[in-house]
């Protein structure tokens, strides 16, 4: 069975997700932006074995602790899409700009593309390429639990910013309306910040989406 736990990290209250398969106790962290001690404590408390780091995109609050965790624990870095290479290259400058601890550089072990799959234990998630907030942003969808991890594409009552380098409002709206919402109103999602919601709630009430 698939399990998930939301762990807000950094001053940006970014929703890092710990996901795991209870048959194997193998786990992955989605968007380990910081607060390494808090993340590893959550893994240890549940008796899990951390196997991978998955990234939706490479903004500092989502990727800041990735390089250190990958190096110290010998973990593969899976994602995002190659479109975010320039954000990975800029992590040291992002650290300084936003007052974060100095982020270690890293190279993803595997880039992700639309239609790919990632797995942990016996659980599999689909990958959707959803640019707009960043060019290389991806989303992870677990069909069995009808849940998606959408990073900063969509929020409860909001959408991702598109005023950063590489942002594109039209691409973001297209990703939401053509890739995410058609998956079904019943799908719950963990956004990069703030409370969870469902695609149905956002389709009906999100003021930033076209009617």
From TrEMBL:
Cofactor: Zn(2+)
Keyword Ribosomal protein: no
Disordered: region residues: 192-211
Coiled coil: none
Recorded superkingdom: Bacteria
InterPro entries referenced in this protein's UniProt entry, alphabetically: MBL_Glyoxalase_II, Metallo-B-lactamas, RibonucZ/Hydroxyglut_hydro
Sorted UniProt keywords: Hydrolase, Metal-binding, Zinc
Matching SUPFAM superfamilies: Metallo-hydrolase/oxidoreductase
The Metallo-beta-lactamase domain, residue ranges: 13-193
Entry's Gene Ontology molecular function annotations: hydrolase activity; metal ion binding
Protein's name according to its UniProt entry: Glyoxylase-like metal-dependent hydrolase (Beta-lactamase superfamily II)
């Amino acid at each position: 069975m698939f399990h998930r736990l939301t762990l807000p990290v950094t001053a940006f209250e970014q929703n890092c997700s710990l996901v795991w398969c209870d048959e194997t106790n193998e786990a992955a962290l989605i968007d380990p932006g910081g607060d390494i001690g808090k993340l590893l404590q959550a893994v240890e408390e549940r008796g899990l074995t951390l196997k991978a780091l998955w990234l939706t995109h490479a903004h500092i609050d989502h990727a800041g602790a990735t390089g250190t965790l990958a190096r110290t624990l010998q973990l593969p870095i899976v994602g995002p899409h190659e479109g975010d290479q320039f954000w990975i290259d800029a992590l040291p400058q992002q650290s300084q700009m936003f007052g974060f601890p100095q982020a270690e550089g890293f190279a993803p072990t595997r880039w992700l593309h639309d239609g790919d799959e990632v797995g942990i234990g016996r659980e599999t998630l689909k990958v959707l390429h959803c640019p707009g907030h960043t060019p290389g942003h991806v989303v992870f969808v677990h069909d069995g639990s009808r849940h998606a991890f959408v990073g900063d594409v969509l929020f409860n009552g909001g959408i991702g910013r598109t005023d950063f380098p590489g942002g594109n409002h039209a691409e973001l709206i297209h990703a939401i309306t053509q890739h995410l919402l058609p998956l079904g109103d019943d799908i719950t999602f963990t956004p990069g910040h703030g409370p969870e919601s469902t695609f149905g709630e956002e389709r009906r009430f999100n003021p930033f989406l076209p009617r």
